[in-house]
Amino acid sequence: MVPLKLKARDAWWTVFAIDPIAGTLVRAVYPFRAVTPNRLTFACGLVAAAAVVAFAADSLIAAALLFQASFVIDCMDGKLAFTRDQTSRYGGYLDVVADTLRFSGCAAALAYALAPSGAGTIALLALYPSLHYGVILTGKAWPDRAPVTSISVPATPLALLRAAPGRAGKPGSTVDAEACAFTIGPLIGHPVAGVAVAVAFNAFHLLAGVGLRTLRAARAVEEPVA
User: Fold this and answer.
1) d(CA 10, CA 40)
2) How many H-runs (helices) and E-runs (strands) does the chain carry?
């Protein structure tokens, strides 16, 4: 197989925990043309729906594992398309739909499962999606975003782990927060604590990101036009 094409920078959870698995699976399916990125995206959505059902049923360990299985497949579809140099008119849209189902559906289902914990827990779970999408939307709106660059890495777990330190972005990203809320917290039996850590991550990134970007934008507006 040709070397795996990856984003040069990605979330900590992705590069250290997920890519060694997803990259190895991409190597396994790469020769099979019937396995396409869009079909993987559909599979990602189906597994995400199963995670939603598991969270709603308060089967937290199963839900946490299904959530990450969906995320692994989500990482596979982009890597497979990138490595094969395949493009699809609707691929990006389908990917966002699957991502939205996984995050929003699991957030709502987890809130339903934890509702008996009290009003404070419900408030925390209501706050989390707002912060999550706030971080994403403000980041996408920034006009000076760095372009997405790629690197090529052999599709083996060891090679992917060796590349991980150089690819890891700032800690506490939305992906890292999701891992705390929907995987680590439920697996260790403290789902509310997992959501609290996710809220803290997103609040910090939202406040810091908006503050710094707004300051930079204000300075840019005040600069005279040459």
Assistant:
1) 20
2) 11, 2
The identity of residue 21, as a single letter, is I
Count of structural domains within the chain: 1
1: burial class by Cβ within 10 Å (0-12, 13-18, 19+)?
exposed
Q: Each residue of 99-129: pLDDT tens digit? A: 999 999 999 999 999 988 888 888 898 999 9
- Averaged pLDDT of the chain: 91
The token duo for 128 is: 């989390």
Instruction: State the CB neighbour count (10 A cutoff) for residue 173.
Output: 21
The tokens for 5 are 């094409």
Convert 118-140 to b/e letters by CB count within 10 Å (16 or more is b).
eeebeebbebbeebbbbbeeebe
Structural domain that includes position 61 = 4-222
Q: Are 128 and 181 contacting, i.e. CB atoms less than 8 angstroms apart? A: yes
Query: Side-chain half-sphere of 183: how many Cα atoms within 13 Å?
Result: 19
Alpha carbons 106 and 186: distance in angstroms, whole number: 12
What CATH number has the domain bearing residue 168? 1.20.120.1760
